[in-house]
Amino acid sequence: MKNRPYIYLSMLLSLAMLFSASVHAQDPVAVKDAKPKTTAVKEEKPAPIKIEMVETDVAEALSIIEDSHFVGKDINYNSVFKSAIDGMLHTLDPHSNYFDAKEFEQFRTEQSSRYFGIGATIGDLSDPDGKMIATYIRATFDGAPAHRAGLRYGDKIVEVNGKDVLGKPYNEVRDLLRGPRGTSAKLVVEKYGTNRRETVEIIRDAVPQPSIAEAYMIKPGVGYIAMTGGFNQTTYDEFRAAMVKLKKNGMTQLILDLKDNGGGLVGHAYRVASTFLEPGQTVFTQKGRIQAIAERYTSENPDPEKMPVVVLVNRNSASASEILAGALQDHDRALIVGETTFGKGLVQNPFVLDYGSMLLLTIAKYETPSGRLIQRDYSNGDLYSYYTKGGVGREDDGEDESQTPAGPESKTDLGRTVYGGGGIEPDVEVKPNMITAERNRARARLNNPIFDFALDLAYGKLPGFENLKADKPIRFEYDISATDFVIDDRVYQAFKKHAVDKYKLSAAQIDAERQYVERSLRAELVTAAYGTTTSYQVFKDYDNQLMKAIELLPRAKQLATEARTKVNNAERSSADNR
């Protein structure tokens, strides 16, 4: 489009005027307690930057680029102006961002807890020499187009819309499967059980992308909710449904997993927190440009849950998940376990711009009920340090990755000491189990033999192991038990022979990772029978942070009891004074 550069220029100049007005609006504010000057030399105040100067400079720079840069008029104006706007925003804070029309549409889709596609997980398989064989269907999602079309675990993808994809890289096949809602993906698949090829036409549609990946009874009386998919438009409804389901199954204690939850819609975090807080208790406070004005958000739940709660967090728990964890910690309503959270306590508000783009601009900061600031320091403007080292002056030595918040001390309702200025520090720190890079490579070498062997198990092609067949349609919403797909020594020895004979691995290599092999084989069979989401349950027994959370439930119960006693005493005291 010939006028496209000038459209972007207009957008950039409009934003420049917005920020210019913002800066000038703050000029009259006086700084209190300023120290007197120690020199008589009068400092010259730089001349204010006028919007006309910005307009002239940007237009001249664009003209020079078009006339003199070796790319000339073939430059990608979207990238140039997006970078310029992002650079302007990031001088203000790390979380203000500009979304072009395509990114804005993706943002809105993610907020609606869905995406558009065929609704399947896929994975590739290589031969013993490392040559790619094909990409396979690993699982479909409940109600998704791929599930309705009958795709199953082990279906080899031969063609997509007439293009041969055998031996093609996984990401190339994935990109061919993706596409806008309502468009067609015509697949030729080879069924693993029969080796017959079938043509399947799938109309791409909305695929649910829930906030809660799993909700099941992890042991008698103990419910587990993995709220790891962010806070979106369906989060609270998902949470409420999970609570009803688990309480029907006998839940009296809860583990709420917020690990890797990057945040999202704060209103849903507020509603989840209010589930456990007494009426009138603060969930969070929001402070905007005028610091003296604070907007406090309090629980309005007349009948809060009384059960003990442990909340799991890690370094990737951010924003709304930190608001939730901070509220429950400050009111001593939950025991926080894991690692110090990321430290994002800035409020963004979307401003829709012309031509379908959007500005996500920071307008305020969050505080927890005790007055803690969640936000980590970003004053030096170094985004790399901000995202990798926890903010200004907090180096990561590579060994102790947990960061202690560097802000002032606060107190919880029961008088426990907590700190602000860099995330939520857990009550009990538990680092995840880590493996070396060398061991990770050793495990990677086992993945193809594991998938190859699991395919034969799932389709009953190995005599004597028919009890491990999983060649029926996926049964969704299933909670696995200890007796489902047991990988005993007989299965393990058969796998080892397969990996040694076909993939030329040594018995010692395999034995060194026996636990990984057994766990992965079971996960593959659970995936085939019950879907990808249910397969995550296989790995929970090996999650040291989750196991510690279960162990700490008595401490969480004691904390909840003490917090409730304090609330009751306060209510009685208030009644006596009336």
Characterise this structure.
With 578 residues, the protein is α+β, with helices and mostly antiparallel strands. The protein has four domains: 1-15 and 53-75, no CATH class; 114-208, Pdz3 Domain (Roll), CATH 2.30.42; 218-429, 2-enoyl-CoA Hydratase, Chain A, domain 1 (Alpha-Beta Complex), CATH 3.90.226; 437-542, no CATH class. It contains 17 helices and 21 strands. The protein has helices spanning 4-26, 51-68, 77-90, 101-111, 145-148, 170-177, 235-248, 266-274, 320-330, 383-388, 437-458, 489-503, 507-511, 514-530, 532-540, 544-551, 553-577; strands at 97-99, 114-117, 120-126, 132-140, 156-160, 163-164, 184-190, 197-203, 205-208, 214-219, 222-226, 253-257, 282-287, 294-298, 309-313, 335-338, 346-352, 358-367, 409-411, 417-419, 428-429. Strands 3, 4, 5, 6, 7 and 8 form a six-stranded antiparallel sheet that branches. Strands 10-11-12-15-16-21 form a six-stranded mixed sheet, with helices on both faces. Strands 1, 13, 14, 17 and 18 form a five-stranded antiparallel sheet that branches. Helix 7 links the parallel strand 11 and strand 12. Helix 1 packs antiparallel against helix 2 (51-68) and helix 8 (266-274) runs parallel beside helix 9. The protein is globular. The chain starts with a helix and ends with a helix. The model is unreliable at 17-40 and 393-401 (pLDDT under 50).
What key attributes describe this structure?
578 residues, alpha+beta, Pdz3 Domain, 2-enoyl-CoA Hydratase, Chain A, domain 1, 4 domains, six-stranded antiparallel β-sheet, six-stranded mixed β-sheet, 17 helices, 38% helix, 19% strand, globular
